[in-house]
Design brief:
2 copies of one chain form a homodimer. Chain A has 330 residues and is α+β, with helices and mostly antiparallel strands. Chain A has 2 domains: 150 residues, 60s Ribosomal Protein L30, Chain: A (2-Layer Sandwich); 161 residues, PurM-like C-terminal domain (Phosphoribosyl-aminoimidazole Synthetase, Chain A, domain 2, Alpha-Beta Complex). Chain A contains 9 helices and 16 strands. In chain A, strands 7, 8, 9, 12, 13, 14, 15 and 16 form an 8-stranded mixed beta sheet that branches. A 4-stranded mixed beta sheet of chain A has the order 3-6-4-5. A two-stranded antiparallel sheet of chain A has the order 1-2. In chain A, α1 runs parallel beside α3. Chains A and B meet through α1, β2, β3, α2 and β4 of A and α1, β2, β3, α2 and β4 of B.
């Protein structure tokens, strides 16, 4: 499909340029060359390091065409990448999208995917600077690469947590997977995307991450893409520490005006909230621009990750990713 | 699949570290943080710009499991990205691999894919610094992102060709697609991968590109990934020029000791050779470290891309990508 591909690349370049004015106020000066050459060229600034992250969005694994509007797929795809940049305390600069599309996919669907993605790009003041397109023999596949910058030595890694640090999460947890469970339970019901923004149009915590990073509050940070239990374990393993979480401290989200089950908040994932640790004595505000920052427990010596229940008993917090629910395994 | 993914990421991190010693002599000092955090961190050097390229490799579109050994898939995948860095005159630094794998794919296949990819990474002295893994509901999908560097303002773009510039190609053209045509014609025959390195184990022209870039010879450069006729047109469009190519000057490759057909050399693609233009009066060696550099024509005013035949007639060189052949369309 050489000619259609050329046309599609031109179309994307046009869409990307049309979206650029807003970005221009931000980081676009860094992009020296984008769509239309072998590589994109990004200007580095002295004193900065480059952050790079890639994330897959596969039809049937990360979204379903019958559930997710195309603009939600584009929105979620870029948000995944931006959330990784946020989790390092960085500033995003540019995105690259590799797309494999079935031959029969309507052009309108592709346009709406880009509309959703470019809306998020504009809000984050970044440029869609390149990518690749191929015909998929099967479903839709998108791979997003996001490039960001961070001051030298200031990237917030997962490795810095120490015993005694307080553990915080941003926002409230569990709504996206609670909705997903409902979608699996009621496969024919149409869930209006606009009514469930936490799942369909999530927001990467870029601004909050910059606020925390600027104050050098977090000793370690990551996003909760695979669920608190799974991601806290990863953070603890990377830092060679353990943790104790208080069950009744975990901020549980609401869905349709009802609090979701605790297990969704503990194991949910697909959240794009931040999990971070803060050394003793540092003050963390309870709310930042409307987003609650909740103390849920403390880092401990050793490797155990425990959950303190309301009845006083303590059990191990077993890691369970959200894919577990996606397959109806519980 | 949270736990298997964790295991696979650890396995890749281990394979990548094992491959690192050779890379360490090269660019590894730039990689501050790689697999195991939200993002990779790459240190920027003053006076350099960052190059970024992404390329898809899809089962059924870019390779077939019954034709391509897993190590060839990994080899070809990374070579595609490296070739884009070469085409800009850059030095590759790190690669990121997003992989969607069917649940039933044997671990051995995945290991061999990584063996092929890491072999190429070692040779290019780069690090596999991150990526993503997901379960594919259908076939194998790999998306490679390669990061490189180039001195500020020295990236060789497609836009610099001017009327009067000489047009060169590296190597000999047409063998990969001539083989592909045989594979389509004889679908049950087993083609030994090691006997056809131009297709199964192609080499990105990184060293040649650095040689040319260091001498500031090319006014424009790109790799011939979609065939000379298609890619020359892209270069000419980007530079707002035309071109005249001499049919009998095009270096035609051999396959099984027979010269392939001219149409394969003109429209072949899947080549990873360099197409570049050189201003009048600059001397280009006929051979660089065993790779012929062949003058095939000249850049002209206007927009026409012409082919001068041996009989003296001139026709338009129509762009025909190699996918055209892949579908047996001719």
């Amino acid at each position: 499909m050489p000619i259609p591909e050329n046309h599609l690349v031109e179309r994307i370049a046009r869409l990307s340029r049309a979206a650029a004015p807003a970005a221009r106020r931000g980081q676009i000066a860094r992009i020296v060359e984008s769509i239309g050459d072998d590589c994109a060229v990004v200007a580095a600034s002295p004193g900065e390091e480059t952050l790079i992250t890639t994330d897959l969005c596969l039809e049937g694994t990360h979204f379903r065409r019958e559930w997710h509007p195309a603009d939600s797929v584009g929105h979620r795809c870029l948000t995944r990448g931006l959330s990784d940049i946020a989790a390092m305390g960085g500033v995003p600069v540019a995105a690259f999208l590799s797309l494999a599309l079935p031959a029969k996919l309507p052009q309108r669907w592709v346009d709406q995917l880009f509309a959703g993605l470019l809306h998020v790009a504009r809000a984050a003041r970044i440029t869609l600077a390149g990518g690749d397109i191929a015909q998929s023999p099967t479903g839709i596949m998108a791979d997003i690469t996001v490039i960001g910058t961070v001051e030298v030595g200031r990237a917030i890694r997962r490795t810095g947590a120490q015993a005694g640090d307080a553990i915080y999460v941003s926002g409230e947890l569990g709504a996206p997977v609670a909705l997903l469970e409902q979608m699996y339970a009621l496969p024919t019901r149409k869930f209006r995307a606009a009514s469930y923004p936490a799942h369909f149009y999530p927001k990467a915590q870029l601004e909050l991450a910059r606020f925390l990073a600027a104050r050098q509050l977090p000793s370690a940070m990551m996003d909760i893409s695979d669920g608190l239990s799974m991601d806290l374990r990863r953070l603890c393993q990377a830092s060679h520490v353990g943790a104790t979480i208080q069950e009744n401290a975990v901020p549980v989200a609401s869905l349709n005006r009802h609090e979701v089950e605790l297990r969704h908040a503990l194991h949910g994932g697909d959240e794009y909230q931040l999990l971070f640790t803060v050394p003793p004595g540092r003050r963390v505000p309870a709310v930042h621009k409307g987003t609650p920052l909740t103390l849920i427990g403390y880092i401990t010596d050793g490797a155990e990750i425990s959950l303190e229940h309301e009845n006083g008993y303590t059990t191990e917090l077993e890691p369970e990713g959200w894919e577990h629910f996606a397959k109806g395994g519980r």
